[in-house]
Amino acid sequence: MRIIADLHIHSKYSRATSKDMNLDLLALWAKVKGIDLLGTGDFTHPAHFASIEEKLEPAGNGLYALKEQSQKNNPTRFMLTAEVSNIYTCNGKTRKIHSLIFAPSLASVRKMNSAFMRLGNIRSDGRPIFGFSAQDLLKIVLDASPDAMLVPAHAWTPWFSIFGSKSGFDSIEECFGDLSGHIHAIETGLSSDPRMNWRLSSLDRITLISNSDAHSPSKLGREANVFECALDYHEITGVIKSKDRSRFLYTVEFYPEEGKYHYDGHRGCGIVFSPQETLKAGRKCPVCLKEVTVGVMSRVEELADRPEGFAPADAIPARHLVPLEEILAEVLGTGVNSVKVQREYKRLTSVARSEFRILLDMAEDDLTGLAGATTAGAIMKVRSGDITVKPGFDGEFGKIKVFGGVEETVPTGPVQIGLF
Ligand SMILES: [Zn+2]
Ligand SMILES: [Zn+2]
């Protein structure tokens, strides 16, 4: 069966998250979005893990479901997931790396958590901060279960990522040493997409996955993974580990320009630079004369050994989408959080059964019948990549325009490489 999976989210116990991020509401919102498999997030946090133990029960294959839903048809499945932050010094440089952890059982989570409890504070934040290395983290994860997985999170963001310009590494090997063979995947993050990652031949053996990193329910599934396989922990992690193109159909991507760290610059100084402009300016902000925040595109440019546009033969395809709320906001000429947009979002997703059916599956005629010609036209334009984006930089999200251009835009061109 086709499975849409979002494996990186946070609970209400992580900093700056919505109080609605609890398992009951997450299961409900997964249905609205059309997500079949959702990460629990934050299994390292004692209170969230207590609710996982209390509310979920095994679905028999390394995945879990809400107790009251598990007997029903097609309940939302959960995978035991967490994200942790490692801040440490390596070869004389401060490193700050976020990693995702996938676990096959409650028992393996208990093992990890008791190791984490001895080595740091797991109570103060759903995404705990540890002082030991990412390599030591990987040891703990594999010690708890050889079937557990560690995936470097949002691999390119300037702060807190394995390839980040501020405190990352230049390669997986530099970070994980002789354990690098146990790293099978990285998360591309909102500001980069597979096409950018394909420019590094060192990542050819790595599977690129995409998740929402949602801090509130409405952001679930803004990036996701689409598999054709059984709802089974071992099968899904097997597909990821083997980069099985026949069962990993595609990733759902943000337009990377829309991400907060696509371009370079200084938000406070009003400076936005493309990678070329950053080079020309000697990486200096002309306003405050400090180094600009070097975003994902520049960093990819720095580490890439292939030209733009290169696609490896065995690459997993990607489909770029814009969240339905953003499309509706533009069509209705009002804000994403306005009553008008929210009312129409609710109506469309309840009639169509889910947001992903609208964004990915429904034929244009059916969309027109459901949402009217303008909204249907906008969705078709998003599917074909016929939109413009003003790139995000230094923590500010980029801006999407489906109809007409925005000032200082870059045309995205057709980006549905591969299948579409
Ligand atoms: Zn993170
Ligand atoms: Zn500045």
The termini sit apart by 20 Å
Radius of gyration (CA) equals: 21 Å
Largest sheet: 11 strands, mixed
At the fourth level of CATH, the homologous superfamily of the largest domain is Metal-dependent hydrolases
Per DSSP, what share of the residues sits in E-state strands of 2 or more residues?
A: 15-25%
Please give the number of β-strands.
18
How many domains? The number is 3
Quaternary organisation of the protein chains: single chain
Based on secondary structure, the structural category is alpha/beta
Shape: globular
List the ions, cofactors and other small molecules found in this model: zinc ion
Mean pLDDT: 94
Low-confidence stretches: 408-420
The appropriate CATH architecture of the largest domain is Alpha-Beta Barrel
Provide the helix percentage.
25-40%
